[in-house]
Amino acid sequence: MNSTGSIPVYSLRSFSSRERESQQFQVEVFDANRHFAVKYPHRHDFFEVLYLSHGSGFHVIDGNKYEIRPPCVFFMSPGQAHKIEFSHDIEGFIFIFTPEFYLLDYNNPNRLIEFPFFFTIRQDNPPLQLENPADVFFLESLFKKGIAELEKGDQFSVELVHSILDLVLTACASLYKTDEKSLSGKGHMLVKRFFQLVEENYERNLSVAQYADIMAITPNHLTQTVTRLTGKTSLQIIKAKQVLEIKRLLVHTHLSVTEIATRLNFPDQSYFAKFFKRETGISPLQYRGRSM
Description:
The chain has 292 residues and is an alpha+beta fold. The chain has helices at 99-102, 133-150, 158-175, 186-201, 208-214, 219-230, 234-252, 257-263, 269-280, 284-291, and strands spanning 9-10, 25-31, 42-44, 47-54, 57-61, 64-68, 72-76, 81-86, 91-97, 128-129. It is globular.
């Protein structure tokens, strides 16, 4: 358990060298020698693209466990909790970046969540399995070019690194196998935006009406669209996120039930305990005991 009372949330500077702390991006080699003072599981407040060329292991993202079978690419959105276990011979590249960096030259604020692997409708994160050697060569060349550019120090081109990131994401999106590609239009983006807002605001314990207000739509329109595309209501999505966060805090922290209820903005411990038992069938303390 994490004695500090919550799952760590790391900013991009935690993964950057001292001279690059102010940057909104980082691209570098990923291997067993890449050590930073971070704890697992943890969250990020940035986006991540992790390409692995060699090695084995498992990557657990928001409770979903994926086998590492190179060559493959993992994608993570801000707020997701993950834990990675890998062999000593792991090799690859990693590109981490803030939304502000990627959206620098775009007028469309939804550009990032339009990619099929960020804030997914199914709320899962299966990796991209690369099957074509030409695709492997192309992606590796992009990562290597990004690293070489940063090695120029003060002379590197932000515009070039941004273009490389865009190529990485666009190339991966074209290869990513998901039925989300068949979904298009405002409804699809509305649901992904809703997921993003739930991720950003779950500690506030907002209602469906409050989320709808933020999105400048009616609660009925929000729920109808979410239900049509996911098979779940808006309220079910909100509750599922709350239950997931409660489980994380019960397992990975020493916070009391009362402290967790307060952190997640429940009115009192009694209501919180009833909510959790109604959704899971057991009490918070029973869940914590079974997970020890």
